[in-house]
Amino acid sequence: MAHAKRPVAEHCTKGTVAWRRAAQPVPAVTQKDMVIVANRLPVQEVDGEWRTSPGGLVSALKCVLENRDLSWIGWAGTPGETIAPFKHDQIHHHPVSLSPEEYEGYYEGFANGTLWPLYHDAVRSPEYHRSWWRPYVEVNRRFAQYAAESLAPNGTVWVHDYHLHLVPQFLRTMRPDAKISFFLHIPFPPEELFAQLPWRREILEGMLGADLVAFQTRLGAQNFSRLCRRFTNAVGQDDLLKLGDRLVKVDALPISVDVDRFDAVARNPEVQLRAEQLRRDLGGRKIFLGVDRLDYTKGIDVRLRAFETFLENNPAAIDDVVFVQVAVPSRECVDDYVRIRQRVEQLVGQINGAYGRAGKTPIHYLYRNLPTEELVAYYLAADVMLVTPFRDGMNLVAKEYVSCRTHDDGILILSEFAGAAREMLDALLVNPHDIDGLAATMAMALKLPSHEVYERMSALRTLLKRHDVHRWAKQCLEIDRDCS
Ligand code: G6P
């Protein structure tokens, strides 16, 4: 409950409107055939200019939306700030402002304190507060209003993620002509968990406003359809629900990455030289790599304990192996994220203190966001990539690593509980909660015969080339109104 009452931290509310030289103001309402609605705009302010944001959703969408005339409705990232619509990189941006109270109730509260933990197997206890629900409804209504105003007749609106579950239904009422697609990037929980939510019917009805409701996995789609049949007036099968005189298609459309783009960066000679340099800097040792947003769902702490166990079981390995953990700062104003950072940093210190020697640090820890070229250099340098979340909608890091391994080498250790594990069956699949099992898989990865490494990686690459982000976006936007 302390979470609900905590005042918004000062560094979360500070804002300035004196920058944004790159922004070109546009008239308040410019109607487009395609409107994207996501909690965040795809840009952020860096040194007084708008730049494309790093991160999964943005990079996934940017490359498929290039050269399309569209509007993007989202929050610019600072509470209490009002920004006029502007054009950047051909996209019309319509910033939605959030008051500090809405930021706390809608974003920190309902999105990050209720839905995020509930949808991730309740690895932290979800909190249910009526004072969070009310701003969630109001902010969703505002996003829908902006979308309704920005959409040309019979246009398409693509709504993203758990922050905006109610937008499809609001929009359906405001703009019955709109084609609406909804995609959930995170897992959709099983019936028994979702049923805890005091506003379960409202959330389901909100999503049912869309023509297409898509999930990362078949299981998520099935959970949704079953819950709709139980708690709403919808009837029908798992893949097609009927609500009054409307049909709603329900599908599993796993997101992917821009495979060609990562492949090209990986072939860049400068990036390859940087990877060589990283290998030398790390003493020519075999490299285990973890790259995660610093989130309690990612299993970073258990992964580090597994590496500790690996060192315990293989004391000589300190000369041959190094672990690099890149932790991307995230939601630093939310208590659970402050705590997980402390835990991870304490473990890094503890393990380095216990096993390190002069010139031989077992764990290299980077708390920052890396530019794409630098990230790809790490992917190229790494012998073994560890992606071990307790629960994850998909996990694009796993797909990025594979996209970069142009020589069909490198080993991916992947959690059974990541959406990616449903497709990437040639990874070494692990239970991320099993410290001994994870340590044993790390040891095994180093001993895998090279022909097996090659076979596994080339199978993974073949799969990814067939299922890249362009295919995913195309499927998400195929809306057949004739069936509804
Ligand atoms: C996940 C969500 C995204 C979100 C991202 C970063 O990947 O699916 O919708 O944007 O985390 O979280 P943040 O709270 O910083 O937007």
What tags apply to this protein structure?
alpha/beta; Rossmann fold; eleven-stranded mixed β-sheet; six-stranded parallel β-sheet; 18 helices; 19 strands; 43% helix; globular
Explained architecture:
The protein is of the alpha/beta class. The chain folds into 2 domains: 9-253, 3-Layer(aba) Sandwich (Rossmann fold), CATH 3.40.50; 259-466, Glycogen Phosphorylase B (Rossmann fold). Helix content is 43%, strand content 20%. It has 18 helices and 19 strands. The protein has helices spanning 2-5, 10-13, 56-65, 100-119, 130-150, 167-174, 191-194, 200-207, 218-231, 259-267, 269-281, 300-313, 335-355, 372-381, 396-404, 435-447, 450-466, 469-476; strands at residues 24-25, 32-40, 43-46, 49-52, 70-75, 86-88, 91-95, 151-160, 179-183, 212-215, 235-237, 240-243, 246-252, 286-293, 321-328, 363-367, 384-387, 411-415, 428-430. The strands form 3 sheets. The protein has an 11-stranded mixed β-sheet, with helices on one face. It has a 6-stranded parallel β-sheet with strand order 16-15-14-17-18-19, sandwiched between helices. Strand 6 and strand 7 form a beta hairpin. The structure holds 6-O-phosphono-alpha-D-glucopyranose. Residues 39-40, 56-57, 161, 185-186, 330-331 line the site of 6-O-phosphono-alpha-D-glucopyranose. 6-O-phosphono-alpha-D-glucopyranose (G6P) binds at residues 39-40, 56-57, 161, 185-186, 330-331.
